[in-house]
Amino acid sequence: KLERKKISIEAESEKLASLRSEVIKQAEMNQVHIPRVERKHKKGGKDAANVEFDYSLVKENTDVKDENEYDRIKQRYMDEIATTETDIQKISPNMKAFEQYNAVEERLKSMKDDFDKKRTGQKDIVTEFETVLQERTETFMRMFTHVKENIDNVYKALTKSKKHPLGGNAYLNLEDEEKPFLSGIKYNAMPPGKRFRDMDQLSGGEKTVAALALLFAIHSCHPAPFFVLDEVDAALDSANVNKVSNYVRSRTREEALQCIVISLKDTFYHKADALVGIYKDQEEETSGSLTVDLSRYGKHVKLSHSAIFGTQDSSLHDSAELKASPTPTRSSKKRNRGNSSSN
Q1: Is the pLDDT of residue 38 over 70?
Q2: Helix H segments across the chain?
Q3: 3-state SS track over 139-151
Q4: How confident is the model at residue 195 (pLDDT cuts 50, 70, 90)?
Q5: What does the alpha-carbon distance between residue 310 and residue 306 come to, in Å, rounded to a whole number?
Q6: Which residues contact 189 (CB under 8 A, 6 or more apart)?
Q7: Which of 197-206, 236-245, 316-325 has the least mean pLDDT?
Q8: Mean pLDDT of the chain, nearest integer
């Protein structure tokens, strides 16, 4: 019985010695220093079996009562070891850091070169933009100054009469002279005999005259070969129609200006050099035109409706050139429109 017990103890001792040897080897591989006390072998050598651990540094868990407590303490230590290993892996150095740094440095250099190139290009573009802006501002201010200086004279010519020989007044101002393109233009017209009011408080006829004054003032700066005025007299009374027609005729006489006026009022007809009438041909179901050249008649000859269109006997009927030329364009308008042309 004692022999069997001895054999069992020896087997357990060998097992523990093997376990101790594995622990020591594992510690050496992990570069973990374990405090121990070495003892010499009888033959003078050293091995794991002759090494005793130094437990003097252990301050806790020195008295383990049973295996359950041992397993619990061991598991706690294993958890702490796992946590520590995880932390070590997190702070472990990146061996490719230098390669990544070089790649990032090259990319930074490339981006810096590209940035410098674009910044230089931006300076050139800003310089070009400022040059164009300066030229545009100078051109606009030159045009605006000319129109501003002439619009009052044009408005006076359109509104003067025997009762008001001086005519009205017109003013053109910039809302912001330093930055004219970021603000608007203020235009005010004061008809003769009336107080100063905003443009939106003027009547339709007064607004029409003011608009014509602005149009002819702009034309004085950049003359156009001809004007087309489409029923600009629609909102005008007979007195203003006469003023506008006289002014248009004077401009066509003084300047190389052709003016085509579409009107329904005969005041413009009397001032025209030629008349063009549009009518509907009931038989052909097309539009036709009638042309009369008034320049063939002297100013002393008074032309009547019958003399021009031949509805009554007239001594001028035979000499008037009345031309009818139907056009292929269909018209659904029930009223005729008279066109007068001043040259």
Answers
A1: no
A2: 2-29, 67-90, 97-159, 204-221, 238-254, 266-271, 305-309
A3: HHHHHHHHHHHHH
A4: confident
A5: 5
A6: 155, 168, 169, 170, 171, 199, 202, 206, 209, 210, 213
A7: 316-325
A8: 78
